[in-house]
Every structure is written in C-alpha cells, then in structure tokens.
Design goal:
Layout lengths: L8 H18 L15 E4 L4 H5 L7 H8 L4 E2 L6 E9 L6 E10 L5 E6 L19 E2 L18 H9 L2
Antiparallel strand pairs: 1-3, 2-3, 3-4, 4-5, 5-6
Length: 167
C-alpha cells in the first residue's frame, strides 16, 4: 500500500504562513499596555555625604580614609597615591542618571594630601536637571607649623602574628 500524504503541500503552506506572521509580529517591541512594569533604581558605587568628607583632614593615613569613606571603587596600580570614589544612580521610573566623582590624593608617606571632586551631600530624590560641572578642589585646611600628623594605628593581634611569621 503506497504512502499517502493526508496534508497536501499547498494546504500546509496556507496554514504555516499565518502562524509565521503571527510569531514575527508578536515579537515586536511595542505592545500597548495599560500598566507599565516597575523598574527599580540602580545604585552603584560609594555614597559620599558632606559629613563624611568633612571628617577628612590632611595627614590621615590610608586606613583612616578608608574607615571614613569606605573602600574606593578604583585603586589604580599606575596611580597608587590616588583613590577614586564613583557613585552612579539610575532612576528606574524616569531613566535619569546621576553621577558623582570624588578623588583622594596621598603623598609619598601614604598620608592624605588633598581631595577633589563633587562633594555635595546626596539628598533622597535629588537629581540635577542640567548636567553641571560640580568638580572642584577642596582645601582640607591648613596645618599649622609644628603640628604632628595623626599617629599610625598599631597593628592588631593578627597583624602582629603575621609579622612574627614573616608575612
């Protein structure tokens, strides 16, 4: 008994074309929706406030700066005496982006020499309307003659153990 095709080729094509067109048109990105999906705010980097920056003084060690500001986002191996703190906030509902940059510079003795960048305190819901150049160099205060820098913190228990073992 010869094999007989129940679906002739013309009829199969007539059914496949509308299915293919529906799949292609369904993949379009514009779909009318009565409600839009919720998009979250994406916050990246270090949030620095004016109070945190106000605690910085010339002569602070790198550990003291890290304690006040947190771990920097960027510690470049080619610029070991510069730490960069970057903050970026993308509002989910509007798509607006706010960026803040702050840099701390250290001298050859790993003491804070100067800072520069945007140091305005972040307020919730604050986003600038126009991009403004908010970069500036900040004087940390002049150190009177004869003033000693803050003492370097002593090594803790584990630091002393690592030193005794030669690490």
């Amino acid at each position: 008994m010869p094999f007989r095709n129940r679906h002739p080729p013309g009829r199969l094509k007539a059914r496949a074309i509308p299915v293919f067109l529906a799949a292609v048109l369904g993949a379009c990105s514009w779909v009318p929706r009565p409600f839009s999906e919720y998009k979250i705010d994406i916050q990246q980097g270090n949030v620095l406030t004016q109070e945190m920056v106000g605690q910085l003084r010339p002569g602070l060690s790198k550990d003291q700066v890290r304690f006040v500001l947190g771990t920097p986002v960027l510690m470049d191996i080619f610029h070991a005496n510069r730490w960069d703190y970057v903050y970026r906030l993308r509002k989910g509902n509007t798509g607006e982006v706010e960026e803040r940059k702050f840099s701390a510079f250290f001298d050859d003795d790993d003491r804070l020499a100067r800072v520069e960048g945007d140091v305005d305190a972040l307020r919730s819901g604050e986003i600038s309307d126009a991009p403004a150049n908010r970069m500036r160099e900040i004087d940390l205060g002049s150190v009177p003659e004869g003033t000693q820098a803050p003492p370097i913190e002593e090594r803790g228990f584990f630091g002393r153990m690592m030193d005794s073992l030669g690490f």
